[in-house]
Amino acid sequence: LFMVGSFLFASASLFTIYPALNFSNNFINLTYFSGSIFFTSAAYLQYLESINSDITNRHHLCTKIGKYLWFKFCPHNLGYISSLSQFIGTLFFNINTFNGVLNPTGIYANEILIWMPNVLGSILFLSASFFAWLEIYHDEHVKAYKSYTWWIIWINILGSIFFMISALVDDVAIMTTLLGAVCFFIAAFIQRFEPAPQETT
Questions:
Q1: What does residue 114 show for φ and ψ, rounded to 5 degrees?
Q2: What single DSSP character describes residue 169?
Q3: Which of 61, 117, 180, 185 is deepest in the core (most CB within 10 A)?
Q4: With contact defined as beta carbons under 8 Å apart, do 114 and 96 qualify?
Q5: What is d(CA 170, CA 188) in angstroms, rounded to the nearest whole number?
Q6: How remote is the C-alpha of 108 from its chain's centroid?
Q7: pLDDT tens digits, residue range 75-107?
Q8: How far apart are CA 7 and CA 185, in angstroms?
Q9: 166: exposed, middle or buried (C-beta count within 10 Å: 0-12, 13-18, 19+)?
Q10: DSSP tag of 195
Q11: What is the pLDDT of residue 200?
Q12: 3-state DSSP: the chain helix, strand, coil percent, rounded to 5?
């Protein structure tokens, strides 16, 4: 789902960068919005994983064995904090891209309905990346430059930085959105090869 969402964001950015492709603004904005839905779906599944299988603190699991949770507050779990931040961030991107489809008029409408959710979503993506990094920082099984997990975390951090730049610097917004989407696509692809987390005692 992250790969599909990233692909749609990257495609919409390319459609904008190359107007010769003759895609309408409405189609481009709808492509962004569709990508945000895939991002949100993936982020919620990641959230479910964090509350039902705490790899950070297995002695402080959020749920009892045999009981499946759909929502839970687990502040002791770095994976949970990361996934919750990312999930909320994707909801802001839903608002941002949906209002892009609606194309509200007026500078204040654009700032409140499009720009502000974009900034908040980007901040939350950055915080999600930071907490994901904290989660694996002391993990002896995650080797710098050698572990799939290490590369996934740092490529996602780079993608989040690109998204933050796109929200703040209008002149490079489309290009940095493209670069961020490419990073997220690569990280999601690598995740398919990531080994299962090691059990801790």
A1: -115, -55
A2: -
A3: 180
A4: yes
A5: 27
A6: 27
A7: 777 888 899 999 999 999 999 999 989 888 777
A8: 7
A9: buried
A10: P
A11: 44
A12: 75, 0, 25
